[in-house]
Amino acid sequence: xxxxxxxxxxxxxxDNYPVKMRPMLANLGYNQxxxxxxxxEKKRLIQNELAKNFFNFEDIIGYDTENVVLVRxxxxxxxxxxxxxxxxxxxxxxxxxxxxxxxxxxxxxxKGSYRYGYTAGTCPEGEFVASRILNIPINVNDPxxxxxxxxxxxxxxxxxxx
Length: 162
Known about the structure:
Layout (H helix, E strand, L loop, with lengths): L5 H4 L13 H11 L2 H19 L5 E2 L10 E6 L5 H13 L28 H9 E5 L8 H13 L4
Antiparallel strand pairs: 1-2, 2-3
């Protein structure tokens, strides 16, 4: 219900783009705007806890999260971590009931979309990031628990992430 339309993913410009949202999305956004400061504070607390748990790994690229409000918490692995290890982490997390968000999983998101004429190799940094990033959703209504963080940290360690 709250996703990008299939037509848009396939490169077809919706009739009402960009001046109109689907009614359910507009209603959701309007109600969230009424509580934006409260929501942002909750998101900051969640992302600070995520940073404490995941930015201690030397194989993960850390960044300043203090002055931003994130929708998803990106975990970017350094180039010494093989992509098969990243895929194994995703698989093991899924087996434990945890699904990483699919966000910016390709230079032109989402992977498998029309890609708007993008030619592979023309944005190597974007390709690097898209292939090495995991996103933890920051959901104020269903925040990640410390138990879930501990499980994810254990999965990372069991796959040799230092």
